[in-house]
Amino acid sequence: MSDTGARPHGLWDLFMAFTRLSLMGFGGVLPIAQRELVDRLGWLSAAEFAELLSVGQVLPGPNVVNLSLMAGDRWFGLRGALAAVVGMLAVPMALVLALAALYQGLADQPVVVGAVRGMGAVSAGLILAMGLKLLPTLARNPLGRGLWVPLTALTLLLVGVMRWPLVGVLPLVGVLGVVLAWWRLRREKGP
């Protein structure tokens, strides 16, 4: 279970926690999920959160939905996974559908354009803050700083500077990272 010893009391508790965190973030729920699940509720340790997030990032679909599935399953199996995902998606989906209908009529307004642009900047800042907060968990990474720093720099170069599509960069850098981690772990174990 969790290193922290804390856990949700039932499916309703799990559903409400994921509903609450999904409503707190608009376009950047992962930093809020980390703050809620690790810092406030204590249901996961920082290392457990980083582990679930890492697995969630390589699976198809939104990272936070994958995270909610795995977290719910961890505590209550399939019922927990369903409760967490429904909590994560039901109310936000209804809100987004309502906002989409409203936006259709207001998309030309300068205030709306500025608000959407501002939300994008806030989302980028939240993701950067989460990355910085999870940075200490990389101390135990099998790649070691000598390999994960260049992989991170390569990703930033390819996506941020050269404008390669993320869908092509992630498999490339991801496979390279897995191969390097496997090589490093095998080397440390010896023959």
Topology record:
Elements: H1 11-24, H2 29-40, H3 46-58, H4 63-106, H5 110-134, H6 145-161, H7 166-189
Helix pairs in contact: 1-2, 1-4, 2-5, 3-4, 6-7
Please characterize this protein's 3D structure.
With 191 residues, the chain is an all-alpha fold. The protein has two domains: 1-140, no CATH class; 141-191, no CATH class. Helices cover 78% and strands 0% of the residues. It is built from seven helices and no strands. The radius of gyration is 19 Å and the shape is globular.
Tell me about the biggest sheet? Answer: none
Counted by DSSP, the helix tally is 7
- How many strand units? 0
End-to-end distance: 33 Å
Q: Brief overview, please?
A:
Helix content is 78%, strand content 0%. It is mostly helical and 191 residues long. The model has no long low-confidence stretch (mean pLDDT 86).
Which features does this protein show?
7 helices, 191 residues, 0% strand, mainly alpha, 2 domains
